[in-house]
Amino acid sequence: MTSESQMKAERATKSDVIIRKYLPGAVYAGVVVIILSHLGLLPKGHTSILCDDPDIRRILTTETVSVAALLLMATAGPFVNIFFLEWALPGKSGRSARHASSLSWRLLKDCFSGQLLALLIVEFFKMTVSEARPHFMQTCRPDLSDQLCSMGYVEVTWRNCTNPLGLDKPHLLDSMKSFPSGHAALGAFIATYMTWYLMTRLRVQWSQLLGVVLALLWGAWGALCGVSRIWDNKHHWWDVAIGAALGTCIAALTIKWLSSKHLAESRRQSTHPTTSSSLPPA
Q1: 217: left (phi over 0), alpha (psi -120 to 50) or beta
Q2: Is residue 234 within 8 Å of residue 64, measured between CB atoms?
Q3: Vertex 42, ends 41 and 43: CA angle to 5°?
Q4: Which segments cross the bilayer (predicted)?
Q5: Distance (Å, rounded) from C-alpha 247 to C-alpha 125?
Q6: Eight-state DSSP code of residue 278
Q7: CATH of 2-271, one of 1.20.58, 1.20.144, 3.30.390, 1.10.3470
Q8: Which pLDDT tens digit goes with each residue over 155-205?
Q9: CA separation for the pair 107, 119 (Å, rounded)
Q10: Rounded to whole angstroms, how far apart are CA atoms 125 and 281?
């Protein structure tokens, strides 16, 4: 049993080394890919549509949750929530301000890295699947003949758009990036991650209710991010469902492989404060 435990510990240590070695580079590469894609600088194929498909003939509406609001909540929200709670949690043996700051920073790095990974996967599917958004016909209005439409599915690129709204290339390309929903993925990720964090950290009797209330608020925000994309005619329902499932899975993996280990380290150091006054460097 001892040797088996040692082997498991060695494998876990190797996994930690690999994650810490390659995660920063992967994050930076992901940011570059996402930016290039949104600027319309990456090669884009075509989308296939049915000219009379009612699912792509809906009206473009104002966003309930804008991209700016989404990114603000995804970054500032966890930052404020985690830092405040780590500094406000009842003091334990050996717990210090430095300890609280170190743990907060590690959890936030996990959270932000996981969100970027989710967005990178979403962007990959958007580029490869190339599904028309519900407002595609209003936004693009491709120049297609009746004869071509009568043949069934038609391949359309952004160059076929008559562009009645006078949009630039990135926005025309975006009209062919419906699957899956990035809003739903990011909303589900942050709702899952913050619910786990709150339920794990707020176990003291006086704070359990606070944890439940905050978790419900994060859950409501995640639901709003997804559902609003349907009623705003930005995504089809299946885009939102798959996006939410993707965000939830990435959050679970982030918790399992990164954040849960950091909390375990924190508990050990609080129990044995003589070993170190702060978490070891990443």
Answers
A1: alpha
A2: no
A3: 120
A4: 21-41, 67-89, 210-231, 237-258
A5: 13
A6: S
A7: 1.20.144
A8: 998 889 999 999 998 889 999 999 999 999 999 999 999 999 998 888 655
A9: 18
A10: 35
H-helix or E-strand containing 48? strand 47-49
- Give the alpha-carbon dihedral of 163, 152, 157, 159, to 10 degrees: -50
Q: Which candidate, 170, 219, 193, 199, places its Cα nearest to that of 116?
A: 193
Alpha helices in 89-159 (DSSP H): 97-129, 136-139, 146-149
Tokens of 244: 């939410």
Per residue in 65-83, pLDDT tens? 999 999 999 999 999 999 8
Residues shown for the chain: 282
Comparing C-alpha atoms, which of 140, 111, 136, 152 is closest to residue 27? 111
Residue whose tokens read 């849960």 = 260
Sign of the C-alpha dihedral computed for residues 30, 31, 35 and 38 taken in this order: positive
Q: What would the pLDDT profile of 224-237 be if each residue is shown by its tens digit?
A: 999 999 999 999 99
